[in-house]
Known about the structure:
The chain is of the alpha/beta class.
Amino acid sequence: xxxxxxxxxxxxxxxxxxxxxxxxxxxxxxxxxxxxxxxxxxxxxxxxxxxxxxxxxxxxxxxxxxxxxxxxxxxxxxxxxxxxxxxxxxxxxxxxxxxxxxxxxxxxxxxxxxxxxxxxxxxxxxxxxxxxxxxxxxxxxxxxxxxxxxxxxxxxxxxxxxxxxxxxxxxxxxxxxxxxxxxxxxxxxxxxxxxxxxxxxxxxxxxxxxxxxxxxxxxxxxxxxxxxxxxxxxxxxxxxxxxxxxxxxxxxxxxxxxxxxxxxxxxxxxxxxxxxxxxxxxxxxxxxxxxxxxxxxxxxxxxxxxxxxxxxxxxxxxxxxxxxxxxxxxxxxxxxxxxxxxxxxxxxxxxxxxxxxxxxxxxxxxxxxxxxxxxxxxxxxxxxxxxxxxxxxxxxxxxxxxxxxxxxxxxxxxxxxxxxxxxxxxxxxxxxxxxxxxxxxxxxxxxxxxxxxxxxxxxxxxxxxxxxxxxxxxxxxxxxxxxxxxxxxxxxxxxxxxxxxxxxxxxxxxxxxxxxxxxx
Length: 520
């Protein structure tokens, strides 16, 4: 069983107060990891406040486009013309739309790049991206050249493909798009999809750069996912909950069956703690394919402990012990107890890789974790007033988001800006929002055909929970409404789809580059 230890002097955690320590100390200790392009949002003393930023939105200056950027834009135009199931409202989940044989044909034309590096493969409903980031960091700090393939991206498609924390360059991306485009011309009418193409680009880049190891996140499901052509050294299953029910199935066992499709014969598999019905399915599938499966917290000793202590402030420590590894009292780099569970999965996968001959430096694990950064997960994107973005895209993720906020951040009132895709568990997410938000603004991401209609979200929310809500037709409008409603002690939480989170990042990146408004 997973055990949650209590800090020696643990305080009761209330909705509006992370701790009873003085506010100055709480603000000093609170820290969220973020990428370089957002770091200056917190340190630029000349940045405008939220209202000033909104008013100065017309002051952006257009810069000339270089030839490299034009080539990159052309590559993006080619990709945008391909079938993209990530953006379709209705997707048939079968071997025609998700065709591994088609993926293998494409890779064969590219000289089978996926067979030229060792890898770890991770599926799950929530937490797989965080697990991938932590595992990749620990392998990198063991001295390996590590590729990381994840999805979706927030601002730049190149976020999906990186080596040792560095995004693929525009020049390399363009070169590989052209290589894949040439291969596609030989495939006839059965053309690969957008995700298959991006996956092929990622695999080709890792092969070209001769990575020692690659950490691969599945896109949708697992069994029919384009990434499921690899034979990894270890597979991992992060937390499974309700998501993509119209595609993967309406019950947890059906969803689990699809996720378990990444299991391979004689390849060790590790899973996070799961509901009993999910554990049963994962165990059955693992036995069928002869994959040795272990559950963190059941088969592998694991504990997590929430603490409040200087100099870290509120944080979680984890311990994971196996016959070959002792990872004790490690500080989890990402906020929330759910991230501690993800960290446990990453550590368990790292342990299994040691048994497969992958060189792992146990002494570097703590240092590696301390440097993990993950954009769009409980990221404080703005400080005056405070705005947090988090890609919580199902009910369990929204619940985990609000729990983490209550433990780590003090605030007077929380305004939630929410927009999601129409194929999500909307009822479940609305229920969680009703429990955590003081004010709700429903909106939608631009140019996303799968976006749920804000008016319909608002109507369902008001009818079901009897609470008021406001509607905005764009993220910019939602921020205008929020800017008029909050004070410095309030908090804005932007959540729902990753499309909306990406828009929020772009919005505040632009705001940070503008001079302050004269009337701010």
